[in-house]
Amino acid sequence: MNLPALYEPQGRPPQLLARDTGTYREEDGEDAISVRFLFAMLMRRREVVVLTLALCVMLALVFTSAQSRIYSASADVVMITGDTQIAPEDEGEAREGPTRAEDVETQIQLIRSRDMAGQVLEATGLEEDASFRADVLEPRSMLDNLLGTVGLSDRQGASQEVDAATLRERAVTYLIKRIHVIRVGNSFNLRIEFSDVDAARTAQIVNTYARLYTLDDLQERARGSAEAAETLREKVAELSETANAAFAKVQAYRVANGLISSSATGLTEQEISTYNQQVASARAEAARDAAALQSARSQMAAGGAGNVGSAASSPVVASLRAQRAQLVTRERDLSQRYFDENPELVTVRRQISDLETQIAAEVNRSLQALSTQARASAQRLSSLLASRNGTRAQLGADNTALVELAGLEKEADAAQSLYRSYLEQLNKVVAGSGTERPAARLISAANVPGLPVSPNLTLNLALGAVAGIFAGALLAIVSEISYRGFTTMEDVEKRLNVPGLGAIPAFATVQPHSGSPLETVRDFPDGAFSEALRNVIVSVRYLTGGSGRVIALASSVPGEGKSTLSACLGRSLATAGEKVVVVDCDVIRMQLTRMFAFDNGQPGLMEALAAEDSPIPCYEEPESEMRIVPITRAFAKGERLTERGRFARMVARLREDYDVVLLDCPPVLPIAETRDIIACADATLLVVGWRKTTDRVVRAAMRLLPARARKNLGVVLNKVDMEKQVRFGGDDAASFYTQYAGYYR
C-alpha cells in the first residue's frame, strides 16, 4: 500500500494490554480497585453525588425546620455550708448546710420535686397562659413547627378543654421533664437549667425555681420553728405534771415503808456485821469445847482416867499424878528389895491405889465441866445465829422496799430529765425564732436566651452533607458498578476481549474546533480531533499488519455516529494524501448520502452494482480529495446489496483503484445483510457510543459477525466528552487530555 512514512506499519507496538489465552487483562502489578479507580467512578457519576448531596442537605434543612426550637436558660445558686442560725446553739447541735454528696443530691431532688414545680406554677401564673396550656396539652408537631417557621401556625386556640386538676398535673409533669439540676464540679454550686420552646418563658421559670429554692428553706424553717414552739409548750406542760406526780409518789412510799432517811439500812447492815463476827467467834469456841470434850471421852473410854490427857484434867489431877509417879517409883524400888508382904511396900501400893481413885474422881469432874462448857458454847452460838437471822429478815424487807423506792426514784428522775430537756429545747426554739438565714443564695440569674440550643442548624446541615456525600458516593459506586456502558479503552478490552482502536472525541469538547466534525477536520488538520482520527487509522493498520485496505465501519444499533465517523476518517486520510473512497452501504437510512446532499438523479451505488463493466460512480468531496459512492436511488423493497456477489465484486474493483476503501455499513443487530458486507472487508471497526451503548448490546452484535471478521475486529468509542473523560480516569490517551490539550494550539 502506498502510505506516508508516518503510517507505514512497523510491526505491532508495545501494548499495555497483552493477549493471554484470548483474554485481555491489566498489568499484574496494578490493583483491580484503587483510589484512582474509585475516584474515577465518583467523577463519572458526580451528578448523582451532587444531587444526592443537595437532597440530603435539603432534607436536613427541612428536618431542622420541622423540629421544635428549644431554648435553654440556667441560673446558679450556691448552698451555704456554715451555720444557718444567728442565735447560738449547743456545741454539736448547730444547724449547718449540706456538706456531703448525699446532702447535695437531696437538695437536687428537692428542686426537682413535684411540690417545687407546683410552687413555680403558682408563682408564675403559667396555668393562665394560653400558649403554655397549649404546649402542655398538645405538644407541637412537625407540621406545627414547619408552619411556625413561615409564620402560619397559631397555638393560642389549640389547647384542649380539661379540668383544672388534670391541667395542673400535666403542667407539673411538663416542668419536671424539662428541669435539670447539676452540681458544678465538686463545689456547692448548683446549676438549674430549663429547656422550653419559648425563650422568655424559659428564663422566667428558671429564675422562679432559683428564687423559690433560696427562700423555701428559710420559710420552711420559720414555719417549722413556730410549729415546734407550740408543740413544745404543750409537751412541757404535760411533762411538768408528770414529773411532779412521780416525785410525790416517791415521798409517799418513803413514809409508808419507814425509809425516811436515805441510810435506813446502814445500821441494820452494821448490826448484821457484828453478829457475823460474834457468830464466828462463838462457832469457834463451841467447836473447841466440843472437840476437847470428845477427846477426853475418847481417852477415858480407851484407858480410864489415867489415860485422859491434860486437856481434860485440872491442876489437881496434875498434882495427883505427880504424887502417884513418886509412889510408883518408890514401889518399884521397894519391890526389888522386899517381898510383897512388906508392910512398907503394901502401904506404898495402897497409897498408889488411893491416888488413882482420887485421879479418876477428879477426871470425871473435869469431864463434867467440859460437857457443861460445850453445851454453853453451843447455846451461845444458837442464840447469836437466831439474832442474826432476825436482823437479816429485817434487812431483806428493807432492801425490797429500797428496790421499789429506787424504781420510783428513777421514774421521777426520768420524768424530771425529760421535762428539763423539753424545757431547754423550747427555750432554744423560742430564742432562735426569727433569726433564720437562707441555706442558699442566688449568684447568677438566667437571661432570656437569644438563640435556640436545639435544633443545631449547622450540625444538622453538616451531618446532612456528610450523609449526602456518603450516600451519593455509595449510589455513584453502585450505579457505576451496575453500569454496563463503555467509558475507556480499558472497559472495552476487559469486557469485550477485543482491541480498543481509539476514542473519537465529541468535536465540541476539544480545542480548537469548528461548527461540525467535518469542518473541524478541514479547518484544523493538526488539531486534537484530527489526531484522534489518525490514531484510529494507525491502530487499524497495526491490527491488520498493514493489509487493511478495505475497512468496514459498523455499529450495533443506530445512532452511534458511524456515518459521520466514516466521512471524517475519509477526509482525514485524503488530507494526508491517501487515495480513499467511502461507500454508503446503508440503503435504509443513507446518512452519508444525506450528509453531502447528493442529487437523486445522479448515478450511485445502485448503478455501480448493476454495471460491472463501467466505471464505478465516485464523487469527489468538495473540501478534500476523498471520493464517495452515494446511494442516489432507492433500492426496491427486499433488494439487498450483496445479492449474486455484486457487492463483493464492486469492493474488489475499488480495492484496485484506491488505497483505502471505507464501507459505511448499516447497524449489525437490525440488518442481517451487514454481516455479508463486513465479510468483504479486511478489518472491521465496531463504532460504540461513549457511555451510551451497553456491553450486552455490543456482545449481541459481535456474536452475529462472521468468524473471519472477528479476527481483525476493533472497537472505536465515538463522541467522547473529553472534559468528562479526564475526570473519569483510565489508561487510554483520552484520559490524559488536559495534559496535552495545549499542544494543539
From TrEMBL:
Residues 549-688 form the AAA domain. It comes from the Bacteria. InterPro entries: AAA_dom, Bact_polysacc_biosynth/exp, LPS_length_determ_N, P-loop_NTPase, Wzc-like_C. Keywords: ATP-binding, Cell inner membrane, Cell membrane, Coiled coil, Kinase, Membrane, Nucleotide-binding, Transferase, Transmembrane, Transmembrane helix, Tyrosine-protein kinase. Its main location: membrane. It catalyses: L-tyrosyl-[protein] + ATP = O-phospho-L-tyrosyl-[protein] + ADP + H(+). It is a multi-pass membrane protein. It is found in: Cell inner membrane. Residues 215-249 form a coiled coil. The chain crosses the membrane at residues 48-66. Its EC number is 2.7.10.2. SUPFAM superfamilies: P-loop containing nucleoside triphosphate hydrolases. Residues 32-122 form the Polysaccharide chain length determinant N-terminal domain. Belongs to the etk/wzc family. Belongs to the CpsD/CapB family. This is non-specific protein-tyrosine kinase. The lineage of its organism: Bacteria, Pseudomonadati, Pseudomonadota, Alphaproteobacteria, Sphingomonadales.
